[in-house]
Amino acid sequence: MNKSLHLSLFFLFLLGLQVLILNNINFLGYINPFLYIAFIFLYPLKENKFPLLFFSFMLGISIDFFSDSGGIHAFSTLFIAYTRLFFVKLYFRKIPSDYPFFKLNSESIGKVFNFVVTLTVIHHLIYFSFASFSFQNISIVLLNTLYSSIFTLILFFLGTSIFKKSK
Amino acid sequence: MQQIIYFFQKFKYFLFFLFLECIALTLTFNNLNFHKSKFVNSANSVTGIFYTTLSNSKEYLSLKSKNQSLQEENTQLKNDLERNKLFFSTDILVLDTVKYHQKYTYTEAKIINNNYSKPHNFLTINRGVNEGIVKEMAVINRKGIIGITENVSNNYTRVQSILNKNSNINARLKGNTAYFGTLKWNSIDYNTVQLHDIPRQAPLKIGDTIETGGKSTIFPEGIPIGTVSKINKRNTANSKINVTLFNDMSNLENVYVVKNLHKQEIQLLENNSNE
């Protein structure tokens, strides 16, 4: 009970943070971080994938409502939510019986870095390809992906390090 | 039968994933289409209330500059009125004709959500069906054009910004020559839009003013847009001209929604002649 309450608060916190603050940063005119995907990194690992898929879809579609982007956030968020388990197996070499004890904080920083970077870049690449919706400005899509990923990653690692110490 | 159940058992996560992805894709494609976007937009009561609260609290930070801008507009309108006073005051018949020729009505509105950094940008304003706003009305402010209304709910409206790759607006050169073209945006710089299809013989100079052409039923004639900032040296038929906007699209607040009173009549006439 406590855990699900904690997760729903985290959901609302990320939604508010993204919509109220991060969508309005527009660093250098157009660079915005998408920190809300931290929900997918920090969601506990489970055998049953339905809750994660459903909640990530809901988070994406809520952000779409606020930022008038159709279903692009929902699409890209759902994609990394589905592929997350594959990358957990690839980088951390976990088997299903390890899932309840898995915590991102207790893993080595190199593995966590690889995991987070891969998922962030995939998410941002899908998001910006759909947002531009043409093959004409492929260089702009790639540049946007790069800059926004760096921004998101800096915020994510800063945030996790701050909250880790306070506990 | 058992095979099918086994198949669903094995691929249940993948099928659920595909199902949700299909929903997301449908919403994405519908959103890109001006006439189909219905479900996911910021013109609903939940996001509307959210953004209204936010913009109400942000409003106090810019009172000074807003006051200045309103004063400038007032001065401009007063000067226009003074220039036309002679015309208005000659006899009562003119006043009647003025009323008779009225073509547009203006509704004030406030922008509560503004996007300008994406390829498809939208704005949300705090007026809706209750205030008589419908689809495809022009949104302007003192300095120039802003967009076209798109999705309307009871109290809020979503506006397709001119900074949207789907936006097509009729525009012309200000002055005696009536050369016109189509205004589009290439999604790169939010201060610059592109004017397409302007004839080769049009006498263009850097710094020339571009205004709306009045060839559509949406925008009134002669609303300022911006100044020409770059002309291609080889001025071919499909060359584009860069236009720097008068408006700073990243800093907008009070706008006017323009209703064309003759729109229905014009559209009826055009549809009849097509048959």
Structure summary:
The complex is a heterodimer of chains A (167) and B (275). Helices cover 70% and strands 0% of the residues of chain A.
Characterize the structure shown.
The complex is a heterodimer of chains A (167) and B (275). Chain A has 167 residues and is mostly helical. Chain A has one domain (2-166). Helix content of chain A is 70%, strand content 0%. Chain A has helices at 2-21, 38-42, 50-67, 72-92, 109-132, 138-166. In chain A, helix 3 packs antiparallel against helix 4 (72-92), helix 4 (72-92) packs antiparallel against helix 5 (109-132) and helix 5 (109-132) runs antiparallel to helix 6. Chain A starts with a helix and ends with a helix. With 275 residues, chain B is of the alpha+beta class. Chain B has 2 domains: 45-165 and 256-274, Rod shape-determining protein MreC, domain 1 (Thrombin, subunit H, Beta Barrel); 169-245, Thrombin, subunit H (Beta Barrel). Chain B is 34% helix and 27% strand. Chain B is built from 6 helices and 12 strands. In chain B, the strands form 2 sheets. A 6-stranded antiparallel barrel of chain B has the order 1-2-5-4-3-12. In chain B, a hairpin with a 6-residue loop joins strand 6 (169-173) and strand 7. The chains are: A mainly alpha (167), B alpha+beta (275). The interface between A and B is large, with 35 and 42 residues.
